[in-house]
Amino acid sequence: MTAEPSPTAPTQGPDPRRWWVLAVIGIAQLMVVLDATIVNIALPSAQHDLGFSDADRQWVVTAYSLAFGSLLLIGGRLADLFGRKRVFMIGAAGFALSSALAGAAQTFELLVVGRALQGMFGAVLAPAALTLLNTTFTLEKERARAFGVFGAIVGTGGAIGLLLGGLLTEHLSWRWTLYVNLIFAGLALAGAALLLHPARRETKTRLDLPGTVLVSAGLFCLVYGLSNADTHDWGSALTWGFLAAGGLLVAAFAFWQARAAQPLLPLTILRDRNRAASYISILVASVGMFGIFLFLTYYMQTTLGYSPVRTGVAFLPMIAALVVSAQTATNLTVQHLGQRLAVPAGMLAAAAGLVWLTTLDLHSGYAAHVLPPLLIIGLGMGHVMPPAIGGATAGVSAADAGAASATVNTMQQVGGSIGTALLNTLATSAAADYLKGRVPNPATLAEARLHSFTTAFWWSAGIFALGAVGTALLFRNRDTSNTQPDQDKTPVHI
Model pTM? Predict the structure, then answer.
């Protein structure tokens, strides 16, 4: 995640409570980040309890990430318009209430509504938290430490979500993967009330309501069209009609942003090739990663018979490999080879790991067949995300730093939404095709389910391979990147 450049240092000294403020912000950020994965582990249990279909299950994940991603750009404006402390507390309280609603849901529809509301309030909370962190730490060395902690929370939140989701689902109920947010939000709200100072509102800021409507509606149509292809097939008007409408609305959004007085997404930040390539890298990686988490979770629980806790623990080596690879990429690979080689190489490694996962069968073992490709995927992803996030925010002018940061998060969430919808559609279609002409006994159903997982892994591998080719062509040599003479070179911290 990216912060706006340092504001002018205040006349008084640093806030003596600033490290406690960091703890409050960290709790809120952890709550938002882990909710992208904590429910994945609980999905099989929730599906069994509420009785929704395989074709519908992706909406439990997609409703959150789509609402989050499509509203992040406007969420950053709200903090300036209404005050950071107020918006932070509204976001935390709304997230808690939405989590309670989703956790208590007795129908699939209410669960999806609750998840969508979670995403909406998360889009309000996350930018406010980042802005508060940026304005609380004014000394450069302390800012580096604070953003290091914040970055670690962002990087490990997915793993914490998988493990915590497994523990809660196995020992309590899948509903507690949602109820646990009441604890996080309660701590964040209490800390905010005691520690945060009200900030002056930015009276010159205006909301780009037309842009918000266009991009939100466009993204919804794209994901909805992809999600319904399995039930209406690709030739149905309910599929291509929504896809076409989504494409037109996104194009209209781009047209409007070029003319809006205060655009949600200033198009100037996309004119640098390295930055555009970085955004594409983040989008591609998010599409592929959500497929890995979702379908490998189902494979381990439904085919290997793993408990939710064991499933969460099984993902930890991949996260460890990702953390090690991220440090190597940041400190060595990118420094010596540049993004042009590091990012495509990471995507190819992830593609190779996914191809390996396609060899899984009904009797595969974790140590010999699941763990090695997971480690390769983790090593590959560590060379994609950190360099891409750095490239997406490097050299951005001070006025556009917030928009660049919000766009990074938007690419992550929208990529996850599209990936979940597209891959789930392809997987369920593959399972249905496999069962045609076969007797649906337990053995055949198990093979059909495995075939759907394999199909998702193949498509994810293809997405990463195409991303490797595209980014290799788009990225420029590192010695020519971020040298725009008109850019404000005020440092932007990750």
Answer: 0.74
